[in-house]
Design a protein that fits this description.
- By secondary structure, the chain is of the alpha/beta class.
- The strands form two sheets. It has a seven-stranded mixed β-sheet with strand order 5-4-3-2-1-10-11. A four-stranded antiparallel β-sheet has the order 6-7-9-8, covered by helices on one side.
- The radius of gyration is 24 Å and the shape is elongated.
- Helix 2 packs parallel to helix 10.
- The termini are far apart.
- The site of magnesium ion (MG) has 7 residues, from loops.
- The site of magnesium ion has 7 residues, from loops.
- This is Phosphomannomutase.
- Its cofactor is Mg(2+).
- Its main location: cytoplasm.
- Pathway: Nucleotide-sugar biosynthesis; GDP-alpha-D-mannose biosynthesis; alpha-D-mannose 1-phosphate from D-fructose 6-phosphate: step 2/2.
């Protein structure tokens, strides 16, 4: 007489059945993905509404897309901010996650590289730049000054002649004043000339400040981690000159796609990657 399986045996069997099914799914998924092709996405305005959290619909769409192509994200924000927008499991939900334009790089959930302004320039050069900039600001005669004239970030310096902790009203006033007196652009030309040997990019954006970072530390920075891919599709909303997707969109290494919303990102990806399998 055959004895019935014990509870432990039944459980073990169920466990292996699940394992085999998962493995089959995994292999089917990976086999279906075209080698050498990656779809790379900006975050704000491309996968989410600006500064908002990803919708469940878009989240599900990206999960489906990943079954067909390798997927990555590249955002200007740090990983904490990107995780707030795309979810806590973002480094596992995408094959590649490049935060701070790729200064911090994750692949398959693991950190594969990090770079910072501090280690790139070294303390001496950094100090020389900061000292000069603070002296310059001290000598500026503008209507008002507040505090935090230089904000030190991991991949850039943000310089503000009025100081970052001014009120919204003071911001608006400075913006108007700057339009007439070109405080920022004059300051940038002085710094650009004085520190030309450091190969820095100066980017005037927003109302009260400008960013300073090494040449090439825009979104194209992340491409160094994608040497294995010969077909890199990039999707972004700010692909015009001066926008933060411009350089990677224009790069010879990418096929650039301009989108205006997450819905359009999904539409374009459906046409490009999903319609063939239907
Ligand atoms: Mg964007």
């Amino acid at each position: 007489m055959i004895s019935l399986p014990t509870r432990v045996q039944r459980r073990t069997c169920r466990f292996f059945c699940i394992l085999v099914t998962d493995l089959q799914n995994f292999l089917t998924t990976m086999a279906g993905r075209k080698p050498g092709l990656i779809a790379l996405f900006d975050v704000d305005g491309t996968l989410t509404a600006p500064r908002k959290v990803v919708t469940p619909k878009m989240f599900e769409f990206m999960r489906r897309l990943r079954e067909v192509v390798t997927v990555g994200v590249v955002g200007g924000s740090d990983l904490t901010k990107i995780s707030e927008q795309l979810g806590k499991t973002v480094i596992d939900d995408y094959d590649y996650v490049f935060s701070e334009n790729g200064l911090v790089a994750h692949k398959d959930g693991k950190l594969i590289g990090s770079q910072s302004l501090k280690s790139f320039l070294g303390e001496e050069k950094l100090k020389e730049f900061i000292n000069f900039t603070l002296h310059y600001i001290a000598g500026l005669d503008i209507p008002i000054k507040r505090g935090t004239f230089i904000e030190f970030r991991s991949g850039m310096l943000n310089v503000s002649p009025i100081g970052r902790n001014c009120s919204q009203e003071e911001r608006d006033e400075f913006e108007k004043y700057d339009k007439v007196h070109n405080v920022r652009s004059k300051m940038v030309s002085v710094l650009r000339e004085k520190f030309s040997h450091l190969n820095l990019t100066f980017s005037i954006g927003g109302q009260i400040s400008f960013d300073v970072f090494p040449n090439g530390w825009d979104k194209t920075f992340c491409l160094r981690y994608l040497e294995d891919f010969h077909e890199i599709h990039f999707f972004g909303d700010k692909t015009y000159k001066g926008g933060n997707d411009y350089e990677i969109y224009e790069s010879e290494r990418t096929v650039g796609h301009t989108v205006t919303s997450p819905d359009e990102t999904a539409e374009q990806c459906t046409v490009l990657f999903l319609s063939k399998e239907a």
